[in-house]
Structure formats: structure tokens, C-alpha cells
């Protein structure tokens, strides 16, 4: 069975969100143990702002996959082992963002998130216009909308990308990242190459969800499950799941 394609952090699932600008995530190619395309190795410089349980695991796994990782944490001592493993320490969120093509913010709440994005030492003060800016914190809708507008105002690509999978998922590259934003939505409507998440794999997950629901009614789940069952019967199990659900694609 074809499972989900794995990026260094895990699987990206596209959802509609409040982000404003669109672009491609920039990559530079060199010889390192990162992702491959057309025989070349792709590596990005990535800043991780916030080294709690999830941020630390993400930074560790990015380092193992050959990416250039810049780290910042409110208590610098927490970055010591990551620096020893090859990460570059930054004196502020702005300094971390200035060195990165992709910035992940993984803090605790609205207050801590606002503190690392705004102000003279914030991410927005240091990030290049070409950088892709991502929040993976647990935040309120109001603050995410405000942050998306601030990023759009400076012409930056922004994703609201909460994640699930726990500390183990962060360390092992098995997170599920829920990507919200215009680029996320447009890419969701375009079948990926290679396949990101096969129809047969989606059918397996949906069938499991139906079993877990027991005797409870779940008409929406039944309808979607029927779509994927039909796709499998038609021999489309290896296609990307997004090609099977016309209701989602047309919304």
C-alpha cells in the first residue's frame, strides 16, 4: 500500500486558512543528506524560533536531514545541545529569521508568539522578503489573522501550520502539519507529484474512523468513504487522495 510521502518533518495536509500571500518554498541545492530532486540534493536554511518539546524535535530532525538550522529560544541554554549538533544560535528572532529561507515559529501561546514576531527584534524585522514564514504554535484565530495581514503587508509568504504527532513525531519526521493559506489551498487543488497521500491510504484511515465511531451516526464520513471505495473499485487507489474528492476540490 502506498503511504504518505515523508518530508523531513512529516506529512503536510492542506486546509483552508487565513494566510494571504502565495509563493514556492525556496530551495538551494548542494551535496548534503537532504531531499533529492532530479539527482540533486535539496537543502534549505531553516530557522526554528522556540525550542520547547515540538520545536526542539523539529530542529533535531531538520539537522539530521542535512538542513542548515538556525535556532533561537527565550532561554538560550536550551539550545546548547542543538548547537553542539550543528545548529547556529541566534541572538534574537530577527537574527534567526535574517539567516533563513524558511522560518518556523513554535512558541506556547498568543503572548509568546506576538513577542517573537513583532518589534525591533521580531521575526518580521529580520526576515528577508523572500522567506517563507510559518507559525506552528497553538494560537487564536484573531492573532493568526492579524499576523497573516502583517506578513501580507510586507509581501511575505505566510502559512498558519499547526501540527500534530507529539514529541516523538517531531523527532522522527512523522508530524502531520495542517497547512492553511492561499498556496496551501491552490496546491491542494493540484495533484502533487509524487503522490503525497494515496487514495487507498485515505480509504484505510476513513474506514478505521468509521469503525471507531461504533454505532454513532456519521453520514458525512459515510459519504466520503463511499467516494474512496468507488475510487478503489475503479483501480484509482494509487492516485493522490485529492483527485478523488470532487466536493472538496470544488469548494
From TrEMBL:
- InterPro entries reported in the protein's UniProt record: 3-OH-isobutyrate_DH-rel_CS, 6-PGluconate_DH-like_C_sf, 6PGDH_NADP-bd, HIBADH-related, NAD(P)-bd_dom_sf
- Superkingdom is Bacteria
| PROSITE patterns noted in UniProt | 3_HYDROXYISOBUT_DH
Region Disordered, as annotated, extends over: 1-36
Q: A Pfam family this protein belongs to?
A: NAD_binding_2
User: Which intervals hold domain 6-phosphogluconate dehydrogenase NADP-binding?
Assistant: 46-184
- The keyword Manganese belongs to this UniProt entry's keyword annotation: no
Key words of the record: Oxidoreductase
Query: What PANTHER family does UniProt report for this protein, alphabetically?
Result: 3-HYDROXYISOBUTYRATE DEHYDROGENASE-LIKE 1, MITOCHONDRIAL-RELATED (PTHR43060:SF15)
Into which family does the record put it? Belongs to the HIBADH-related family.
Name of the protein in its database record? NAD(P)-binding domain-containing protein
